[in-house]
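Archive entry: two folds, one per protein. Generate the first.
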Amino acid sequence: QVQLVESGGGLVQAGGSLRLSCAASGRSFSTYTMGWFRQAPGKEREFVAAIRWSSGDTYFADSVKGRFAISRDNAKNTVYLQMNSVKPEDTAVYYCAVDSKRGRLGPKIDWYDYWGQGTQVTVSS
């Protein structure tokens, strides 16, 4: 069993920055992949970024490359999404997720089997 709790969402001005956190607990995830997804009203959930816990390898959606960064803190069992140069199009509920089965690094929703509740990010124009 894995539990994920997101935090850090809120209202931010276009061009600004925001850092989201996802605290994980429940069992060891040294072989896991942790990812961030987002879902805007009327839109399908889409991949944002992922990090393989053991290696630190990362993968980003084209829409956020160069603007967002993903990292993890081993001591705190927490993964972060640093959002820079945010745009109104980034407005969505952001979810963290875990691939606990194979620790694959990639964008497919079906690879992830644990999900947090989500945190709202709103970017004003």
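Generate the second and append.
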Amino acid sequence: QVQLVESGGGLVQAGGSLRLSCTASVSSFNSDAMGWYRQAQGEQRELVAGISRGGSTKYADYVKGRFTISKDNDKNTVYLQMNSLKPEDTAVYYCAAARFLVVLTTSPSYWGQGTRVTVSE
């Protein structure tokens, strides 16, 4: 079982930046796709971004040009750099992992506990 631990959430003003990190407990980072989902209060959980072992990425339209997903294989860690944050980005952000990117974007196999991001006006 892969365990994922997120960090980096917090409170930031609109237009500001935040960087989320997610570390996998096992070396599956090199073979599994990883990424981020988010869930606002009262809303459905939705994909934010994902990255494959080979570096292919997928972004939700509402974050393109603002968020960047990256990874560090040596640290088994995936990052989400969030710039130009908007109040509507406020949500709990969950790290996720799966064997393939296509699976990550539909039904991830593993989930982290989540880290809260709050964007004020």
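Annotation attached to the second fold: The two ends are 40 Å apart (CA to CA). The chain has one helix and eleven strands.
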